[in-house]
């Protein structure tokens, strides 16, 4: 089974929200065959609960992260087929020259790379993840610049609930685009088709 790892700093704000949203989107699309989604932090305290503001902001968007507990990146990174980082600093920790570095992107970088590629053929399943990641990596190596001034999802730690809500809204949008970029957009049947 394929797996996606979402990474931020402490694994108590951004990455648990994005993990929950990505898991929900992939489960809705693929059911039990959906890729496994998890998250970790580059720095933080193992076993820490998400911040109350992160739990609230995620819940308001229909995602329950209350049971989440932080994990350290070093313990889980090697198993992932794709690493989605919340900021360039998280992606860069994995290094460009490592196998994990080749499969690591910031969320916004990866979405822009995928959107620059030809669309995914209809009916792509969860097993097409590695091929799509390879295509994005090749586009990055070929010099696709994307928007290097807007790669990061800002860290809301220590900010008021409204900031967490803005972060959750931003993540919801980018995660939706990520799933469409990896597996193709889901089209709804028109009135004449349905």
Short description:
The protein is an alpha/beta fold and 194 residues long.
What does this structure look like?
The chain has one domain: 3-Layer(aba) Sandwich (Rossmann fold), CATH 3.40.50. The protein has helices at residues 14-30, 52-59, 88-93, 99-102, 107-116, 129-141, 161-183; strands at 3-8, 36-41, 82-85, 104-106. Helices cover 42% and strands 10% of the residues. The protein is α/β, with parallel strands linked by helices. The termini are far apart. The mean pLDDT is 90. It has a four-stranded parallel beta sheet. The longest helix is centred in the last third of the chain and has 23 residues, at 161-183. Strand 1 (3-8), helix 1 and strand 2 form a beta-alpha-beta unit. 41% of the residues are buried.
Beta content? 5-15%
Q: Please write the CATH class name.
A: Alpha Beta
What radius of gyration results from the CA coordinates?
Answer: 16 Å
**Order of strands in the sheet with most strands:** 2-1-3-4
Topology:
Layout: E1 3-8, H1 14-30, E2 36-41, H2 52-59, E3 82-85, H3 88-93, H4 99-102, E4 104-106, H5 107-116, H6 129-141, H7 161-183
Parallel strand pairs: 1-2, 1-3, 3-4
Helix pairs in contact: 1-2, 1-7, 2-7, 5-6, 5-7
Features of the shown structure:
single chain; 194 residues; alpha/beta; Rossmann fold; four-stranded parallel sheet; 42% helix
């Amino acid at each position: 089974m394929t797996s996606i790892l979402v990474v931020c700093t402490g694994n108590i704000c951004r990455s648990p929200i994005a993990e929950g949203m990505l898991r929900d989107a992939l489960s809705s699309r693929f059911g039990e065959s959906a890729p496994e989604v998890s998250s970790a932090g580059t720095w933080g305290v193992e076993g820490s609960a998400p911040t109350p503001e992160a739990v609230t902001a995620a819940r308001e968007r229909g995602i329950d992260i209350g049971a989440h507990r932080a994990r350290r990146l070093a313990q889980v990174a090697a198993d992932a087929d794709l690493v989605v980082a919340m900021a360039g600093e998280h992606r860069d920790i994995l290094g460009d020259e490592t196998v994990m570095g080749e499969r690591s992107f910031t969320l916004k970088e990866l979405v822009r790379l995928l959107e620059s590629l030809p669309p995914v053929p209809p009916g792509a399943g969860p097993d097409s993840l590695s091929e799509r990641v390879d295509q994005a990596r090749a586009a990055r190596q070929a010099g696709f610049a994307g928007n290097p001034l807007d790669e990061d999802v800002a860290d809301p730690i220590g900010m008021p609930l409204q900031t967490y809500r803005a972060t959750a809204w931003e993540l919801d949008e980018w995660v939706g685009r990520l799933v469409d970029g990896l597996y193709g957009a889901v089209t709804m049947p028109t009135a004449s088709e349905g």
